[in-house]
Amino acid sequence: LEKMTDLVAVWEVALSDGVHKIEFEHGTTSGKRVVYVDGKEVIRKEWMFKLVGKETFIVGAAKTKATINIDAVSGFAYEYTLEINGKSLKKYMENRSKTTNTWVLNLGGTDYRVVLEKDTMDVWCNGQKMETAGEFVEDGTETHFTVGDHNCCIKAVSSGKRKEGIIHTLIVNDREIPEAVE
Q1: What does the protein in this record do (predicted)?
Q2: Which of 146, 145, 147, 143 is nearest to 156 (CA)?
Q3: How far, in Å, CA of 94 to CA of 157, rounded?
Q4: How far apart, in whole angstroms, are the C-alpha atoms of residue 14 and residue 147?
Q5: pTM (2 d.p.)
Q6: How far apart (Å, rounded) are the C-alpha atoms in residues 101 and 169?
Q7: What is the dotted CATH code of the domain comprising 97-177?
Q8: Where are the beta strands (DSSP E) in the chain?
């Protein structure tokens, strides 16, 4: 395995199907550009005369669009920024925290990362979109699914406050799981 000598940037991107690692190699003498997603090479370009520009590729099961922007700052110094779906990584993650809930839990010695996409009510667990059954209950809705042999339920209840909106709670084996901060 060739050593990544021109590694200039590494990003961790939390998507519904998991946290993805994006690595970027930029050979400023050779003009080489290599992009790795989760350790797999997705773009390789050798001998590029133009040292600035962008590389676009997809990440994860939902084929999320990612772009690395290469900008010259001064002389032979470069700045590398990552955009996800056309937004800076910071903006994307801020927006994502409003549109998703994430829980991390351990069941029977196995770690699980459960993500609820609030706009679609899709539930993801460790990279897989889950089969769910939704039902209306007295105080809101419940979305049921199973992880291994564990019954899981995401309860959606109005907070009663307009600013807060709906509160989503994950319940596994009659136990409330605290939300994770990513």
Answers
A1: Plays a role as an inducible effector molecule that mediates Fas resistance produced by surface Ig engagement in B cells.
A2: 143
A3: 23
A4: 20
A5: 0.83
A6: 9
A7: 2.40.128.180
A8: 7-15, 18-26, 33-37, 40-45, 53-59, 64-74, 77-84, 87-88, 100-107, 110-117, 122-125, 128-129, 133-137, 140-147, 150-158, 166-172, 175-177
Give how far Cα 5 sits from Cα of 30, 68, 70, 74, 120, Å. Answer: 12, 19, 18, 22, 42
What mean pLDDT is predicted for residues 87-114? 92
Sole residue written with tokens 């209840």? 157
CATH number of 7-85: 2.40.128.180, 3.60.150.10, 3.40.50.300, 2.60.40.10?
2.40.128.180
Condensed to tens digits (0 to 9), the pLDDT of residues 48-95 reads 888 889 999 999 988 999 999 999 988 778 999 999 999 999 999 999
151's CB contacts (< 8 A; 6+ apart) are 144, 172, 173
Quick: pLDDT tens for 150-177.
999 999 998 888 777 889 999 998 899 9
Q: CA 154, CA 159: separation in Å to the nearest integer?
A: 15
Distance CA 83, CA 67 (A): 5
